[in-house]
Design brief:
Layout: H1 8-13, E1 25-26, E2 34-40, E3 43-49, H2 60-72, E4 79-83, E5 86-90, E6 95-96, H3 99-103, H4 108-121, H5 135-148, H6 157-171, E7 177-179, E8 188-190, E9 195-197, E10 204-206, H7 208-219, H8 223-234, H9 240-267, H10 274-294
Antiparallel strand pairs: 1-2, 2-3, 3-5, 4-5, 6-8, 7-10, 8-9
Helix pairs in contact: 5-6, 5-9, 6-9, 7-9, 9-10
């Protein structure tokens, strides 16, 4: 008989860093990891348990490098311990944000400043090999996998790939920053004094337009907030060219989230309604792409 595979909780208990017996508490959320809160010798930490996910191009060596650099840049909590399949991070006492809180006119400037500092400062602290995250490559890879596996979404792929090709041409040449690439509200924590950006699964060198488009689409920023965001980030008035390139990348962010969910429908073991998430994001992408074509 083969050796039994340890459960995520057993992985946490087996870590060599505890000073005595601990009781892992499963945390809500986490679609690419299983997360636990552990208190040991008066110190609270978060343990993220998860292997590489090639289907989503999530590689844990990259997450670790990004996490360490993000802490050094003052963006993210400290890495306490890392080993294959497990990452232990300092626990931040604070509130995980929601989309309405991201849109709050007092908090949104602080969030944009945090994202801009991440783009600017993290590359100064990166060590070793790290990934790029080019959304159009990700989309093509997702499409190839869906086709190879006979996904029920395969009939939609030619139209989606044609849209992606048009969007990539519209984005054009890019500036390169180190992006977070997953700016869900739940990846932002407010501890009352400052903001933290967490979860670097999808981190990589990218255009800043992807994070800006993702921040807007995932948190339902309104048009006026998007104009403010772009003018503040780039420190100049918004012109037609930048607006066009931004709208293209925002569409690409929505398409990538849609196809991420399509892949997850057949690859994820997490208890989550991916089919509904796919339908919601596909509708959002189609509406945004229609608007992009109109403009």
């Amino acid at each position: 008989m083969g050796k039994a595979v340890a459960s995520p909780a057993e992985r946490v208990l087996a870590l060599p860093i505890w000073s005595g017996p601990v009781t892992p508490i499963r945390l809500d959320g986490g679609i690419t990891n299983v997360n636990y809160l552990v208190e040991d010798a008066g110190r609270k930490v978060v343990v993220r348990v998860g292997a590489d996910i090639p289907a989503h191009q999530v590689m844990r060596f990259n997450e670790l490098a990004a996490s360490r650099a993000a802490h050094a840049a003052g963006i993210s909590p400290r890495v306490i311990h890392a080993e294959a399949g497990a990452l232990v991070l300092e626990f931040i006492e604070g509130r995980v944000l929601t989309p309405p809180e991201v849109r709050d006119p007092v908090r949104l400037p602080r969030i944009l400043d945090l994202v801009a500092r991440a783009h600017r400062e993290i590359p100064r602290h990166l060590r070793g090999p790290v990934l790029a995250f080019w959304v159009f490559h990700v989309i093509r890879d997702y499409a190839a996998r869906l086709a190879e596996e006979g996904s029920g979404h395969a009939p939609h792929l030619p139209v989606l790939l044609a849209a992606a090709e048009r969007l990539e041409a519209a984005v054009g040449p890019i500036d390169l920053v180190f992006g977070h690439n997953d700016l869900l509200a739940a990846n932002l924590i407010d501890d009352g004094a400052r903001l933290w950006l967490i979860d670097w699964d999808y981190a990589g060198f990218n255009s800043p337009l992807f994070d800006l488009g993702g921040l807007a689409s995932m948190n339902a920023l309104d048009a006026a907030q998007e104009v403010w965001m772009l003018e503040t980030y780039f420190q100049r008035p918004l012109d037609d060219q930048l607006g066009h390139r931004y709208r293209a990348m925002k569409c690409a962010a929505l398409l990538r989230e849609t196809m991420w969910s399509m892949i997850s429908e057949s690859h994820s073991t997490v208890d989550f309604d991916f089919a509904e998430y796919t339908a919601t994001n596909l509708a959002g992408f189609r509406a945004a792409f229609t608007e992009f074509q109109r403009n």
